Amino acid sequence: MTALTLSSSSATGLRADAVVVGVAKGPKGPVPAPGAEAVDEAYGGKLGAVLEALGASGGEGEVTKLPAPDGLKAPVVVAVGLGAVPEKGAGYDTETLRRAAGSAARALAGAKKAAFALPLDVADDTAAVAEGALLGAYAFNTYRGGTAADDKGDKDEKGAKGTKGGKAAKGKANGGAKAALGEIALLGAKRDKAHRAAVERAAVLADEVNRARDLVNIPSNDLDPSGFAAAAQQAGKEHGFKVTVTDEKALAKGGYGGILGVGQGSQTPPRLVRLEHRHPKAEQTIALVGKGITYDSGGISLKPAGHNETMKCDMSGAAAVLAAVSAAARLELPVNVTGWLALAENMPSGSATRPGDVLRMYSGKTVEVLNTDAEGRLVLADALTKASEEKPDYMIDVATLTGAMVLALGNRTFGIMANDDAFRTRIHVLAEAAGEQSWPMPMPPELKKGMESPIADIANMGERMGGGLVAGLFLEEFVGEGITWAHLDIAGPAFNTSGPFGYTPKGGTGSAVRTLVAIAEEAAHGDLV
What we know:
alpha/beta; eight-stranded mixed beta sheet
C-alpha cells in the first residue's frame, strides 16, 4: 500500500516529485487555499493568476499541473480545485478535501513521492486528506504484463491466482500501466495525538477499502466461493479475527436450501463463511451479512449479452463485510462484530435450479423460484436466518441486489431500507459523513402481496415496479423477531464502469465499507440509535 507520513517540512523544502496545493474558486478567479502560502510566495504571489492563464477555475475535482518555480525542491506543482471559497470562519467540507486529495493522487500515478499541502485545520481535515489520497492512489495491475503467468497459475494463500492482494503497488507496473503513487507526505498537520490517530485510522480504512476493491476486481475464474473463503481465512490470520467456513456437505446437512439452490448449477460449490471480531469491553453486537455471488450468469434465467460482462462484481457485498470486520479488528473497536459471507456461483447447467422450483430454506420456509436471476435474496435469506440465531443487537445486510435500485438512485448512490426508521436515518447520516452517497427507501407493505405463491410460503419475485423495495421486503421475512435490521442495496456504486473520479477508481469501488465501519464505531460508543 502507498506509504503515508505526517511531515514537518515546508512545501518548498521537501524533496518530492510534486507538491499538491488546493485552489478555490474565487469571484475573480482561482484563489490559493490554506496550505499553499509558501508555494504561492515562490510564484511571487501570482499562483492564482498563473492558474487562471492556464484555464483553471478552482472548481471541485479540477487538476492542473504546472512547472515549479525557483525555490521549490519539487519539480512540479499540482493544483487541485476545492470549489467555492468557504464563508468567513468556516472550513472546507471534509468530502471536498477527500475527493480533492484523491484526484491529485490519481493524477500522480507513477510518481514515487508527493507532498500534499492542503488545508488541514483540524484532525477531521487530516483524516479526510489522508483517506482520499490513499484511496485515490489505488491501482490494480495484477493482470498486466503476465503477472499471473509469472505465478505459474498457482493460487496464493488468499485464494486468488496471481495476486497477493493487488494493492497499490510501488515501482513500475506491468504492461505499461502506471503504478500507484508510492509515498504521500502530509504537510502542515499538527503532530499531536488526535492527528496521528486520524492518520492511523485513515490508513487502516483505506487499506480495507482497497482489500474489497481487489476482491471485486479479481476475475471469477480466479475467485470462486472456496477462493473467497480462503481469502477470508488469510485476513483473519493476519488481523486476529476468527473465521469459520461451512462447506457444501455441511450446508446440505444443515438444510441451507437457499445457498445450495443457487450454487447447485456450478462446478464450484458454495460456502457460508462466518467472521467474528470480539472485544472484552464490548456491550453490543452487530451482525453484517454480505451477498457473495462470485459470478452471476443469471442461471437458467440467463442474463442477455451486455448485462453479464461485469458480474464478477456480484460479490461486492461480501467483500465489504470482510473488509469491515477486518477493519474493526485492526482498530480494536470495543464492539462485537460478526460477518456472514453467503458465497455461491450462479450458473446454468443440467443441475441448476429451474424457474418454478421450490426451495426449502434454512428457516424452514419454502420459496418458489420464479426467476433464477433473483438469486442474491436466496443466499442472503439463509445467512440472515443463521445470523439471527445469535440474536445480535443490530443486523445489516449488504448486496448488489437489484437493477431496480440503480434505476431509482443512479450509479453513485445506494439505497437503505430498514425495519426501524430511526436506524435507517442514522445509517444514512453516517454514510453521508463517511463520504458515501445513500438514500433512505420505504418498505411499502402492499408490495408483499405480489410475492404470494400458490404452492410455497413465498415467491422470490413480486411486482416489477418497485423491484428494489420488493427485494427488501423479501429479506425482511428472514430477519429474526426483535432484531433491528437494515438492508443496503449497493448495486449502483459497487462497480464503476465509467471513468474514475475523485478517489473512486474504475472497477471495484469498495462501496459500503466506510459506512459499515462508521456503524461499528458508533455501536462501540453506544451511540447508534
